[in-house]
Amino acid sequence: MKALFLVLTISSIMILGSFSIPSAMAQVQAGGVELPGDPTWFAGEGLKKGDLFSYSMCHVDYRECVNFEMDMWVKGDIKTGTEDKWLVDVVVYDGNQVIKGNMTVGKLAPEPSGGTENLSVYRGAYKSSIVWLSAFANGYDEGGDKGPKKFSAKSWGKIANIGGEQVVPLAIEKVTVKAGTFDTVVISWKTGGVRSNVWVVDNFPFPVKAHTYTHVSSGIPPTEYQFELLDYKENVTKDPFANVKPPSNVADIKGCPNTDSLTKSIKRPTEKSEYQIHAYYSPDFPVEGCPMKWQINFLSKYHDTEFLNQVQFDLMVVDEKFTLPPLRSVAQDQGYPYLYSPSGLATIDMTVNHEPGIAHFVVYIYGLAPQGIVPSNPIDYLVIDLPITAKSGSSVTSNIPSWIKNNAGWWADGSIDDNSFVQGIQFLIKEGIMKIPSTTQGTGTGPNQIPSWIKNNAGWWADGSIDDNSFVQGIQFLIKEGIMKIPRDTSSSSSGGSEPPSWLD
């Protein structure tokens, strides 16, 4: 009877076709490789004073896996409470930035537990990549899931996410990185339909190479982290970073607004309608010399909830005529030919270096393609005009009466014409109420050349969105372009211009 049942079962499978294995069974994956002596390994194994490592690395949580170099020198022991730890000096080379500091790491699991504040994001990337395997293999000899792991083990543990599979020693492989050629064991797991790999060397503290992917329910999973050992030295007794001098170009944030709340946003199609952009920025009114944060969402032109992938772009500042090359490129500031967003959601931190007035920001999209590949998509861009204010305490104006701001507001909404607005400003200059910094008088044909952003500027000034200094920057532009003439006679018989001239009534 049992034989008959087996035959019927096999026949049924042949007739009905293949059958699916339950997901719980599919996640069981046997691994294990055989090495002489059946050795064990854990993250931080053999780490000692004088070790010097140099890694090229990235992590998705830091600017969507933008690459940087992290150099680490184990300086010596440090006591933290009752625990002995390693004090590690660190230098990070991130584009044009050089960041120098230190961190403390555990001896049984080399995860960072403190250090200088300027390295916080890089410590996070290090913890979630180079020493990520310490969650499975560490120096704690407590049995259970903790402790060193054998390369012959069928599994080191399971990824802690839905659908996560076993982390297994999969194969023996000889790999070459910039630091040299190593005999490694590939520690591997599968998530999101692709295989993530970390290359481990027996008796070496950290993996020499890794390329892993994030878990996604559909589509191509982006890289989660990637790194490669560039160089390794041991028994380094003299400070290898003694001559490293980070640039002193940190913005003075005293008196600057914070950038914590990204509530102000602009959502528009690009100039040629090839893409849609939803750009958030903070603070609401950017200040010269202060930090500014952007979150830029790159969206499909067909569906404004569908994010684009593999976006090559830049955030620029251009002049009034929107000419290229730009006045500023954030990509060039950071030492890259372009910025890259694999997910279509990019966060940018910058310092505002534009003078008070209107800054013409441009989100410039080169196209959609992996890094290093020239995009075949069309280039397109979106111009975002924002008023830049001066830090409190500086002023180029004196006692501007309220009726002048009313005048600017009326001009902005079309209640009065360009000539009336220009004459009103000339009156302020002549009376000495508005002091214009030295500006070369340009040659122009008249007020009909006034660009629309000047009207926007006037409206913002009228409702208090920008300060007097920012408004004056717009007036300087009008003078420079010859649209507004500087009055020759600056003498005044009035008592300070507190009342408008009759032609402004």
Write up what this structure looks like.
With 505 residues, this protein is an alpha+beta fold. The protein folds into 3 domains: 31-233, YmcC-like fold; 264-388, Immunoglobulin-like, CATH 2.60.40; 402-504, no CATH class. Helix content is 16%, strand content 32%. It is built from 8 helices and 22 strands. The chain has helices at 2-16, 23-26, 120-127, 330-333, 402-412, 418-430, 452-462, 468-480; strands spanning 40-41, 52-59, 68-80, 83-94, 97-106, 112-115, 149-150, 157-158, 166-177, 180-191, 194-200, 209-213, 223-233, 264-269, 276-282, 291-299, 311-318, 328-329, 339-341, 345-351, 357-368, 380-388. The strands form 4 sheets. Strands 6-5-4-3-2-13-12-11-10-9-8 form an 11-stranded antiparallel sheet, covered by helices on one side. Strands 17, 18, 19, 21 and 22 form a 5-stranded antiparallel sheet that branches. It has a 4-stranded antiparallel sheet with strand order 14-15-16-20, with no helix packed on it. β9 (166-177) and β10 form a beta hairpin. The protein is elongated, with a radius of gyration of 31 Å. The model is unreliable at 1-28, 393-398 and 490-505 (pLDDT under 50).
SSE-based structural type: alpha+beta
CATH C-level class of the largest domain: Mainly Beta
The CATH topology label of the largest domain is: YmcC-like fold
User: Beta-sheet strand percentage?
Assistant: 25-35%
Rg over CA atoms, rounded to whole Å, is 31 Å
Taking strands numbered 1, 2, ... along the chain, how are they ordered across the largest sheet?
6-5-4-3-2-13-12-11-10-9-8
The total strand number stands at 22
Q: How many domain units?
A: 3
Describe the biggest sheet? 11 strands, antiparallel
* H and E string: HHEEEEEEHEEEEEEEEEEEEHEEEEHHHH
Low-pLDDT stretches are 1-28, 393-398, 490-505
Write down the overall mean pLDDT.
82
Number of helices: 8
Terminal residue distance? 108 Å
